[in-house]
């Protein structure tokens, strides 16, 4: 059974930083790409960042490019999202996600992922 557990969310002032973590269990973590998404109240879930199985390639939504960094530690079965220069519009529940297939290099769309964490709340005050 594949499980994803996020942590690291919280309340931070605008301009501050947070690092989210997502620990994956129940599969060989190092074989699969990973992604981060977020959902703000009243809005649809949106793509934030994705990373290949090796960590050699990453991609970001334009809204977070240059401020957020996705990384992974395959020895710890963990993917991270370092968030700097946070803005009030970054307020959302953040989810990590994993695909079913190890053939997927990176994914930008929700339907490309099959396993989701429970989410962690990030609130940025102005």
Which characteristics define this entry?
single chain; 126 residues; mainly beta; four-stranded antiparallel β-sheet; 11 strands
Describe the protein in words.
The chain is 0% helix and 47% strand. By secondary structure, the protein is mainly beta. It is globular, with a radius of gyration of 13 Å. 32% of the residues are buried.
Number of strands: 11
Order of helices and strands: EEEEEEEEEEE
Q: What general outline do the C-alpha atoms trace?
A: globular
The radius of gyration over CA amounts to 13 Å
Q: SS-based structural class? A: mainly beta
Helical amount among residues, as a percent range? under 10%
Mean pLDDT: 96
Number of helices: 0
Poorly predicted ranges: none
Sheet bearing the most strands, described? 7 strands, mixed
- The first-to-last residue Cα distance is 40 Å
Proportion of beta-strand residues? over 45%
Could you give the topology of this structure?
Layout: E1 3-7, E2 10-13, E3 18-25, E4 34-39, E5 46-51, E6 58-60, E7 68-73, E8 78-83, E9 92-98, E10 115-116, E11 120-125
Parallel strand pairs: 2-11
Antiparallel strand pairs: 1-3, 3-8, 4-5, 4-9, 5-6, 7-8, 9-10, 9-11
């Amino acid at each position: 059974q594949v499980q994803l557990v996020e942590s690291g969310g919280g309340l931070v002032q605008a301009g501050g930083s947070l690092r989210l973590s997502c620990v994956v269990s129940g599969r060989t973590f190092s074989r699969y790409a990973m992604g981060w998404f977020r959902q703000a109240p009243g809005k649809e879930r949106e793509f934030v960042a994705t990373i290949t199985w090796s960590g050699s390639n990453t991609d970001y939504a334009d809204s977070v490019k240059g401020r957020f960094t996705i990384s992974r530690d395959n020895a710890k079965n963990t993917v991270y999202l370092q968030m700097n220069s946070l803005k009030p519009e970054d307020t959302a529940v953040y989810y990590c996600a994993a695909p079913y297939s190890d053939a997927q290099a990176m994914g930008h769309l929700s339907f490309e992922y099959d396993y989701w964490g429970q989410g962690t709340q990030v609130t940025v005050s102005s």
